[in-house]
Amino acid sequence: MSFKLFLASTIAAQAVLCAAPTFAASLDDLVAAAKKEGKLTTIALPHDWCGYGAVIDGFKAKYGLEVNELNPDAGSGDEIEAIKANKGNTGDQAPDVVDVGLSFGPSAKKDGLLQPYKVSTWDSIPDTAKDAEGYWYGDYYGVMSLGINKDLVKNSPADWADLLKPEYANAVALAGDPRASSQAISAVFASGLSAAGGDVAKAGEAGLGFFKDVVAKGNFVPVIGKSASLAQGTTPIIAAWDYNLLSWRDTLAGNPPMDVVVPKTGVLAGVYIQAISAYAPHPNAAKLWMEYLYSDEGQLGWLKGYCHPIRFNDLSKNGKIPKELLDKLPPAEAYANAIFPTLDEQAAYKETITKNWDSVVGADVK
User: pTM of this prediction?
Assistant: First the structure.
């Protein structure tokens, strides 16, 4: 399925809510209102994810606001739960904004957990990549890949099936808990796509079966994989988004040497979205954050972190992407066979994986 058709299906699948959209205000007025609030509370934004460390620093430097960063290693499900748990809380535990997997956007909108806002660059975000009423909007995407510590793993796996080989004993990890993390759920699904020969309908169950086999072979490490655990050798092979792994590779700078492999089959593309909490204690700071993220500066900040920003085509068309950034991206052919599941397909495999991980795989990932 094409990226355009994939995203179009997400719009068609949404529940329609009768709420007036909120459009971008005068930037000067918005800056003044945000500065009165003085603070933005984010959640689940690791600094080595998608270049967020530099993006957050750029926002603080530009507008002088404090950024309160909650639980950087949380998953998408945790972010939504944080909104629910802090509906009446105006303190530091209530997130203003979320960055979650695509499947969480429409459901959070339906549950009344988000508020609409349309940034000033709204028209340059593809219509098929945003909620028509402004409740959520795509921010970036990448493909599920394998990161490998080359000091410990001499022969890099080329495909998902390779992870069952005896040479990868106690080596394979996920970058999250597959009962809550979009990234981990996507890794399980991608392995299932490979095992099921590309059959999206069967891939959720096939992915669970695959990881059951990885556990049975003694190859699975029930630890949430991070750059530190990869470097230390606790999790020598980690399934994660390409942009995270490429960022880790840069940070590690050869100590240890790291390989990033896009599997030959089961190439899954994942889209994440931005949204503002309906209960945001700092709503103007939240809107200003969105203005920054969807500005040319913010979009290029994500690209520097190896994420393909949602305004990539618009930036490219207008010659705004430096050549050195393009040269650092993986070759285009690595993305040629990427599959973009529809929203309904995502909802189905998310439910299959999160509800059946314990009973089928039985590994308590922490």
Answer: 0.75
